[in-house]
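Hi R.,

Here's the chain you asked about this morning:
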Amino acid sequence: MTGMDFEIINHTLQLLQTEQADISPDHFAEEISKDFMQRLTPGNGDDADFRIIDILCEMALYACNASARKAAVNALYKNIVEPLCDDFTTIGVRLCNLVLLRMIDFIRKKKEGNNLELLLNQLGYSKQKLLLERYETIHQNICISEEKKEKIRKVIILSRVTVGADVAITSIMVHRLSRSFPQADIIVYGPAHLPEIFYGLPRVHWTKFHYQRDGGLVGRLTSYTNLHHQLKTEYAGTHDGLTFLFDPDSRLSQLSLLPLLPDSQTRHFPSRIDQDNTASRLSQLTNRWLNEVLDEQINILPQISIRPVHQNNIKQFFSSFPEDFKKIVINLGVGNDYRKRLPDPFEENLLTCLLKNDKVVVVLDSGCHPDERDRARELMKIVQTKKILTAAVSEKNLTNTHIPFHHGLICVQGGIGMLSALIDQADVFFGYDSCCQHLATARGTPSVICFAGAPNDRFFDRWRPLDKYGSTQTYRITDSTSLSTAELTDLADKFCTMIMAAERPL
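And here is the predicted structure, written out as tokens:
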């Protein structure tokens, strides 16, 4: 369908709505989104037909065709928005803004977007170009004076929504801003993992706000109205100008395209633009930007704080294993991006190789997604066929379940707090490019990371964790799809050697 006339595409859309088309919704959405992206290759978007975005938005609203809705949302985000973000260029940011604004403009004109339309009109943004103009001006005159810092009473930070980004970026903001605004309460808005990684910090509070990361188009785009209302209530009790909002390129604000506080009280970290130092990691860029905003010269590392109950439970769990046994924690989650996972038989070969050593216990976190849990169960069965002992335990009964062996594989199911404590107290951690690599490096746990699926060098450079003690080994694989079985076996052996050799720094 690549290169098809728009009228043909529109006609196919109408047939899909009545389920009379000769093409599946998935294939249709995939083809037209790829065609849209191919027309962006000159770099400026002038050749792109943004009516394709309207087509996909229309599909995403089909009331009677769930498969079409899902296909359209996946195409919009997985094939268009996320690749533009992952490009980490100023051009990519510009094009992504145009796409998101087109999506917002589409939704606000539908009945599902009535509240969004009313709010944006009340705020003076009746047209998408006004939102774009605002975005381009909020990065000017951003330095906050020392006098102002002393007066601020509330600092609101938006979550990046994903755990890994909240460790790599948001954690630096939380700790830096609590120091720079000594009179202010720090309120972090976002998902339920926040109090698990920012536990017990003085003056730091968490306000739950759920973003439908895997939800439909309407839920993703219109949740902004609820957030705006919540924030308005939050800062209503403070005098004018005594609240500041820090936005680290959050999904909650549609990457800062939608206004929450007045522009003079908003600071947006443009994490995706071109940088002078192309090899900089996101944690370094966060520090650099904060130094500009706060007129400081400070650089800190990502850091998390874990609830004592999780630390104590894991300490008790690990105490049943001999001290000279190597405790290896593994998480094979990829955050729904399956390009990051190596094909079979890599994972089963890696586990088998590690468990050849009779003084090793492997703890496999089974993740939070159903497919990750299914994969963990599958790996357990494979390991069992090799006469290796296995057990499965949940966070709920972690401390009162007797593991009848010291050497073997234990699958554990639990939340992010438990997982953070597991990683913290492990001898070594292994995983793909995902949230756990940032959890591990934030706690100084020796780590071996398989970084596959990076779309470009900039993505790899940005998302590598900022290591605390020089104990993280990141091994990049540029093309996992072409690896043979023999090559996957060799890689499993290589990673096994790296994991077994990893030690905590003295």
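One quick note: The chain is about 45% helix and 15% strand.

Cheers,
M.
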